[in-house]
Amino acid sequence: MSGHANGSTTPDDPQRIIAEKDREISRLRGENERLERERDRLRRENERLKTELEAARRAAKRQAAPFSKGAPVAKPKRSGRKAGRAYGRRATRPQPARVDETIRVPLPATCPHCAGAVRPTHTARQLQVDVPVVRPTVCEFLIAIGRCRQCGRRVQGRHPRQTSDALGAAGHQIGPQALALTATLHTALGVPYAKIARLFTTAFGLSVSRSTLCRALTRLATRAGPTYSALTAQVRESSRVSLDETGWKVAAQLEWLWVAVTSATTVYRIQPGRGFDEAAALIGSDYAGVIVRDGWAPYRQFTAADHQTCLAHLLRRCHELIEVLAPPTARWPRAVADVLQTALALRDRYSAGTVSAHGLAIATGRLLAHLVRLLDAPRRHPALRRLARHLDTELTALFTFLVVPGTDATTWRAEQAIRPAVILRKVCGGNRSPRGARTHEIVASVLQTAHQRGLDPHPIVTHLLHAPTPTPAPALLMLPPSLE
Question: 237 burial class (0-12, 13-18, 19+ CB within 10 angstroms)?
Answer without folding.
Answer: middle
